[in-house]
Amino acid sequence: MGDDNSSTKGGSEVVDPLFLNHSDHPRLVLCSKKLNDGSIKKPKADKKPLDSAAWQQCNDMMVSWLLTSLEPDVADRVIYLTTAHEIWEDLRECFSQNNVPRLFQINLEIASLTQGQLSIAAYYTKLKGF
């Protein structure tokens, strides 16, 4: 006869919405909190080590998903960033339609693109890359 909390401390049942189990699947919804806006800051490891570890695990999984879903050239641009929020913000800054200089550069590259010695497939692939 112990208190009710003793049964969950040693067990594997965790009720924290940010906890990721080894059996979590990438297509499942992890939690209902918004995680991409940077509003959930990483807890201090010395004050809340379990919360900090859970946050880091969730962030690492989201970073992995983002990096594997990007084209290799784009992933190379953001691979050095440490949080999913930083990656998301960098991509938004680079590829949002509010980035007028980048849009101008892309339009120039498309306008100057010629097939030249490229095969149709290679030319199409290069054009589609824009």
TrEMBL record:
PANTHER family: CCHC-TYPE DOMAIN-CONTAINING PROTEIN, RETROTRANSPOSON GAG DOMAIN-CONTAINING PROTEIN. This is Retrotransposon gag domain-containing protein. It comes from Prunus dulcis.
